[in-house]
Amino acid sequence: MARHGIFAVRDVGSLISETSEEGTQLKKAVSANQLTAMGVGAIIGTGIFVVIGEGSAIAGPAVILSFVLAAVACAFSALSYAELASSIPVSGSAYTYTYATLGELVAWIIGWDLILEYGVSVAAIAVGWGGNLNAFLDAAFGFALPEAISSSPEDGGVFNLPAVFIVLAITLLLVRGVTESVKANLIMVVIKLAVLVFFIVVAFVNFGTGNFTPFAPDGVDGVTAAAAIIFFAYIGFDAVSTGSEEARNPSRDLPLAIIGSLVICTIFYVLTVVGAIGIATPEQMSASDAPLAAALDQGAGLTWAAAILALGAVVAITSVVLVIFYGQTRIFFAMCRDGLLPRRLATVNQRYGTPARLTVVLGILIAILAALVPLSTIVELVNIGTLFAFVLVNIGVIVLRRTRPDMPRPYRVPWSPVLPLLGIVFAIYLMADLPLDTWLRFLGWLAAGLLIYLLYGYRHSRLRTADVPPPSEVSPSSELPPRADDAGAGEDGPRS
């Protein structure tokens, strides 16, 4: 039968029904506010604290427009994520959506791609966390960790202890429970938004207009080139969709959280960049690895503020590690439950309600990567992996609208297929601007994944082990996402 081929499509109803299986059932314990905080936690990190300097060097003061353009580019894909997340409230994000629309092989490819995007990203962010921790210790106390225990061997050290510490600490938090994790993230989001508010207030108190001319020294080309870099400051809203299965009311909360987190971050980004240019020149910011701190120090003459910004960066990056690592575990969990990776890893710990075994395994592997491997080259793969996922999610919306027009859609992308097509165009445009070496490494990673699929995933897939009923045996009502009044029992999990 066609359903057993490499392009077999999973029935939406069977995907949703699997979320209630004994032993692999996650708690429905995450509220709309917590989901939104997850999005903000994943987005606001090293991007605004670092990339603003790179963007201003390219576009000058017009980097303000670059931030807006990048937000618009993300918005099209965010709308598509919102539709699919509300319609298919299952862990796995783009992997699951692709499985339900484009078939198993494409789903495996995007799932393998997301392992690259999330896993390597967590390791890279952990290394950045260690660097910012040293910057804070130096700024606040005049002390820094020795290079031997704060750098990889290739960078002159023995191993990166801070990176290992933060990965293992987040691993333990994620094992402990999703409720504890989202509460910790909410606290960190409040702190880092407070730090950005501090910067904005100080900047506008000392604001001047002299740095805004010439506004766009390189014209439209400079604005678009900077937007291609700044785009990556917005990456992270897609991590919200990995929490679909644990949302109390996914049909309502997921679209609000995905779109809401992007809107909140865009507002903060624009206010921050306007304030930064109001107190410092693009040259001052681009010359520093900490452009916001440089703007306060050199532009406003407030050297004491550097320690506050450094602390804000540490907290901001901690929440990014938490949310991105959470997303990685849920994508891996979905792939294991579908049989494409070892199913025993999809077992949910009955005490904590989390895939504890899987989380520990991933935590150890990522900690080793962060401790020993310099990620300056590998991290470029995160960018192309994210954009590739955006392309397939937008395609998934278009395909599912045609193949399943009657499927319940609590949220619908307006003006489809125009907006999803624009999302595809923006993503491909930004992908085309990436170096050839990045493309070659990306293709090499996908080739390795394809080999694993052919040797293991294809034979162990639930579609070939008689664990998944054919579409005709799935009740249409099982495709409906939970109603608001029976979406779950909150902290104690689904109602019986």
TrEMBL record:
Q: Which domain of life is it from?
A: Bacteria
| Pfam families, per database record | AA_permease_2 (PF13520)
The parts of the chain that form a coiled coil are none
Give the bilayer topology: Multi-pass membrane protein
Instruction: Quote the subcellular location field of this record.
Output: Membrane
For this UniProt entry, which segments traverse the membrane? Answer: 35-52, 59-82, 157-175, 187-207, 219-237, 258-281, 301-327, 358-375, 381-401, 413-432, 438-456
Q: Which InterPro entries match?
A: AA/rel_permease1
Q: Which keywords does this Swiss-Prot/TrEMBL entry list?
A: Membrane, Transmembrane, Transmembrane helix
Task: Note the PANTHER family from the entry.
Answer: CATIONIC AMINO ACID TRANSPORT INTEGRAL MEMBRANE PROTEIN ROCE-RELATED, INNER MEMBRANE TRANSPORTER YGJI-RELATED
Q: What is this protein called?
A: Amino acid permease
Give the organism the record lists.
Actinoplanes sandaracinus
